Amino acid sequence: MKIYLKRGKEESMKRFHPWVFSGAIQKMDKGIEEGDIVDVICHDGSFIGRGHYQIGSIAVRILTFDDEPIDQNFWHQRLNVALQMRISIGIADNPNNNTYRLVHGEGDNLPGLVIDCYGTTAVMQAHSVGMHICREAIAQELVKVMGNRIENVYYKSETTLPFKADLGQENGFIYGGTNDTVALENGLKFRVDYLKGQKTGFFVDQRENRSLLEQFSRNKKVLNMFCYTGGFSFYAMRGGASLVHSVDSSARAIELTTENVELNFPGDKRHAAFCEDAFKYLEQAGSNYDLIILDPPAFAKHRGALRNALKGYTRLNVKAFEKIKPGGILFTFSCSQVVTKDNFRNAVFTAAAQARRKVRILHQLHQPADHPINIYHPEGEYLKGLVLYVE
User: Fold this and answer.
1) Which residues have a catalytic role annotated?
2) Which phi-psi region, left, alpha or beta, contains residue 87 (left: φ > 0; alpha: ψ -120 to 50)?
3) Which helix (DSSP H) or strand (DSSP E) does residue 324 occupy?
4) Fewer beta carbons below 10 Å: N end or C end of the chain?
5) How far apart, in Å, are the Cα atoms of 70 and each of 29, 36, 78, 194, 319?
6) For the chain, what is the mean pLDDT?
7) In angstroms, rounded to a whole number, what is the distance separating the alpha carbons of residues 164 and 171?
């Protein structure tokens, strides 16, 4: 099956960008269906790449720029390269930490695929129909590559696959099976909600930023907004916080936060959790917090939502600046891919000015090394954060 590009539309692929947009296509072979492996052909008839076809603005996600088969050996090699990188940077095979991202889509030259490891369970997530079709083959090679590191593979793609594909996908184990949902991150325990949790059940990408927060927490009164499973909260407690309040609009998130705090600090009275809308809570909160974390869900899923998203980030940060104590520290984040670092900083700058607070940047934060950015795919840099000192 072949897809032919318009003249001049191969330039980005010559720079190894892994996406072919629908507007770049001149014509397609008949019978191509969503999820098929297709060859991408230049206007002059030369081969330039091979990948999964999908319906939408991104028409092909390139798996390889070489003329090689997409078979069991291909999956094995790509997964092994991903594992060896995690071992080399000390994230995999770490006795103090069994939680990490093994495959990060384009960052690991496997666009449309995410695999997170939680103890002996790997959670696999497809973001394209092609990866969904290949899930069994990938799982087979994943088990071989990981050896005794994993015993279970849980497939969790109900909410990430294109709904128009009508695949009838259900979450569940495709290898092994376990009721043990407790994993370890930097010596702290947490429970993973494979079934109903956001993403793969936990926000693995904030591991290093949580560790940094721990260093700032001693004797602080901490507010963790959009707490989800409470990661920042129990790091703050280990760091010696005098009080930690966790807030989320989801009752299930509050349950998980409470469970996770109890796993690490049973009976500790320093923590309280509240099921409440973030803006409403901040509006009513007193000015008694020394450290505030703002880690909201993505405000912009596509470029059309960018303007409103930036207004949302500004409004949220204004509230935090208004409430935080003088000498307080604000950890503020955006995980919206379409929001650039400059966009985000400008939104926070505007918020500081509106709140009339003197603010200094202490740290600029980003995603950790197990969420690598393909140098040919700068769009993969999605997590932005700032640590701010507020006078």
Assistant:
1) 335
2) alpha
3) strand 324-334
4) C
5) 19, 11, 11, 29, 51
6) 93
7) 18
> In 3D, which of 297, 317, 160 has the Cα closest to residue 227?
297
Q: 339-346: list long-range contacts, CB under 8 Å, 24+ apart.
A: 339/299, 339/300, 339/306, 339/309, 339/310, 339/313, 339/384, 340/384, 341/381, 341/384, 343/306, 343/310, 344/313, 344/384, 344/386, 345/386, 346/310
CA–CA distances in Å: residue 150 to residues 123, 147, 171, 260: 10, 7, 18, 23
Alpha-carbon distance of 155 to 217, in angstroms, equals 36
Delineate the domains of the chain, giving CATH numbers in brackets. Answer: 2-64 (2.30.130.10), 72-187 (3.30.750.80), 206-390 (3.40.50.150)
Q: Tell me if 297 sits within 8 A of 278, measured CB to CB.
A: no
As a whole number of angstroms, the distance between CA 386 and CA 352 comes to: 13
For 193-227, write each residue's pLDDT tens digit.
877 776 677 889 999 999 999 999 999 999 999 99
* Residue 105: Cβ within 10 Å count: 24
Strand partners, 332: 294, 386
- Report whether 48 contacts 65 (CB < 8 A): yes
What average pLDDT does range 150-164 have in this prediction?
Answer: 84
Q: Count CB neighbours of 54 within 10 A.
A: 22
Sequence length of the chain is: 391
